[in-house]
Amino acid sequence: AREEAEQFMVLFLDTQHRLIEAETMFSGTLTQTSVYPREVVKRVLYHNAAAVILAHNHPSGVAEPSDADIQLTVALRAALALVDVRILDHFIVAAKDALSLEEQGLAYGKPKPICEARKREIRKARIQNMCRPRLQTKAARARARAGRVSVDAHV
Question: What three-state secondary structure class fits 21?
């Protein structure tokens, strides 16, 4: 059924990833829900869970994660890691769609953008490293530092 407010659900799993319990832990407004990591950790310990799957809905019908959704996942991952519990995934469910943060590569946070100049530097360094001879022995490395490269170097 279509929910009028955001609901945050946690699926508690055992060590074999079998379902122990599924609970709707938090309910919010049309656009947001307040989730408290401390309360999630308390319920994980109560159920003696080894892993969890997180899920919440977007009543707007759009399954795109917000920055707050990603930050929440990262914060919960850090809190649960303290008690050796893994987050297997965080799903966002909308009217006709669902999205997995794990599949989108967002379960550990957004990747930091790299500017074009930095990308060129990285590419140049990789090319230089590929062209540099690999020295096998300590003596060969010492000769290379002294400016002499011996025949035991290979490419």
Answer: strand
Q: Is the model's pLDDT at 155 over the cut of 50?
A: no
CA distances (Å), 138 to each of 43, 132, 134, 145, in order?
A: 56, 16, 12, 11
Q: What is d(CA 2, CA 93) in angstroms, rounded to the nearest whole number? A: 10
Is the separation of the CB atoms in 22 and 11 below 8 Å?
A: yes
Within 8 A by CB and 6+ apart from 59, the residues are 2, 3, 4, 5, 6, 30, 31
User: In whole angstroms, what is the distance from residue 91 CA to residue 65 CA?
Assistant: 9
Q: CB-hemisphere CA count at 13 Å for 127? A: 6
Q: Which pLDDT tens digit goes with each residue over 3-55?
A: 788 999 999 999 999 999 999 999 888 888 899 999 999 999 999 999 999 99
Residue 141, helix vs strand vs coil: helix
Answering whether pTM is above 0.70, one says no
Closest CA relative to residue 133, chosen from 116, 122, 118, 148: 148
